[in-house]
Amino acid sequence: MKSLWSNSEAKKFKGDLGKRVYTSRLLGANPELVLHGGGNTSVKTTEKDFFGDKVDVLHVKGSGWDLGTIEAPGFAPVRMEALLRMAELDTLSDPEMVKQQRAAMLEPNAPNPSIEAILHAIIPQKFVDHTHANAVVALTNQKNGKQAIADVYGDRVVVVPYVMPGFDLAKAVAKALKDVDPFSLDGIILMNHGIFTMHDDAKTSYELMIQLVTEAEIYLSTRLGKSFKLPKAKPQEDLLGLSEIRKKVSDLRGVPVITSLDQSPEAAGYASREDAAKISTRGPLTPDHTIRTKRIPAVIGKDSAKALDKFASDYNKYFEKYNQGETMLAPDPRWAVWQDKGVISFGATEKEAGVIQDIVTHTWRTISQSEAAFEGGWKALPAGKLFEIEYWELEQAKLKKGGSAPIHQGKVAIVTGSAAGIGFACAESLAEQGAKVIGIDLSPEIEDQMARIGGIGVIANLTDEAKVKESVEAVVRQFGGIDILVSNAGIFTAGAYLQDLEQSNWDKSMAVNLTSHQILLKYTIPFLKNGIDPAIVLVGSRNVNAPGAGAASYSCAKAGLTQLCRVASLELAPFGVRCNIIHPDAVFDTKLWTEENLKRSAERYNMTVEEYKTRNLLKTEIKSKDVGNMVAAMSSPLFGKTTGAQVPVDGGNDRVI
Q: Which residues are known to be catalytic?
């Protein structure tokens, strides 16, 4: 591990707090030290309060901030006097500690101080750094952990047995420091938890962390030997099986989940180990991770439903054994070892799944190293200790504050023809309501358009069957399944009476406006059957029920699409998949309708442009967003008992009615 300190960069950060920000970011930049909000740092300063009196203050990382991106406002300023007085108490509950720490802050709008604020306060050095370094945890989480720490560090560190974070840990560290000179130490090792370094100089405190972790890495590397490599394997692919797993986990959790599947050669190698089930279920890298990953993963073999039912049953037993009145979390796994295939992470959002995957990757890699380096291999804390963290009083309080999620959160939606117009509006509405949207369009603009709404754009010709299959499988591979399909891609072919209609005009309309939708259904239906509240919405046209002369190729294709919807609804209803079609009309805020086109069409009817745009029974303008919102609603539980329906969005058309 190398120091990232740069004298030129450090000069850009002024004062003690500035240096604290800089070195905190250096720590956060290394995932071998901290992951996603892990770790905490502090600096002690003297400042003036509102009345101009000098006050000793601890600036400690605030709740919700990540070390990798932290700014000065991310540090909570707490009066040292209050923290030190709290440290002298015999007992202090977590809620009361949080309350008193907040009451002692100089800035009421700052974030809540870290749960370790009292611990940072009792360490006398100015700068204090705390991480969950993988290499250090690898040394402590094994049978002879204390001896390994002694072999590496001698008396340069104080070793503290594992205790619950917060007040109890602060008391344990105070006790450990009582009989030593803290200024003679390079650091503090918390068994099964992590490492602290401290110094009156920001650079020295940071580089002590780098030095101590490097020594742990060297020791581990020596134990492993030069020939050690993580096992590798070629993963077996089973996308339908992945969608079945996602469906079952979503059912257990009670909300849709997104999967993140790691099928790297190393992940597949880990999942292919004969002892993968045994070593994976001993416990997490650090207790803190249980809040995100739970204590252990599911281990999935050939029968995924059976394996996940067993996980849920075992989780219920685990809760019943250790609970003391807590509210049980949903009995779903947050990650799984999928034997011979890879490692899966599950999240209610794409972000959560990604965070869990990062933690999980470091977990199985570190477990693999410990298994190879130490006799007896990986050894985490007992289940009862981990339960205390997973069901921490402060985490339980968050459950009670939880609000409702967006209606489509966790769902995966494919929207075709979504680079502009109605298709983009559908994608945007679904994204606004929480869905992960994948837009497919022939236009290169699809990539930038989907990026605008947090989606993914795929350039593909939907009449190319091989490309459609490839695109659909890529979606499932990345997110685990498909829940919503909005099949919107289409073209308006040039008008011509039947006797003058060119065959190429007819063929092109049928290929794009009908056959491409049939191809898309062919490859999405197997996954939609495993979707969460799965829904298909096809985008038709007013021309189906009120065709006009000279539009045979377009009108007939859309009529065929409507019939396709009716057949699909009959075939898919037994699987709980709804299929409906929407018929928009007179949607003028698209690229097809320029100001010149609108003016010319309005004049043909002897109308103003505004009159022409509202020439429906309700005298209202129909916009792309109106259609998008209706499609999002039809994809939601609001239409959960409707299938095979044709829904107009046209303001009321007398010819249709």
A: 554
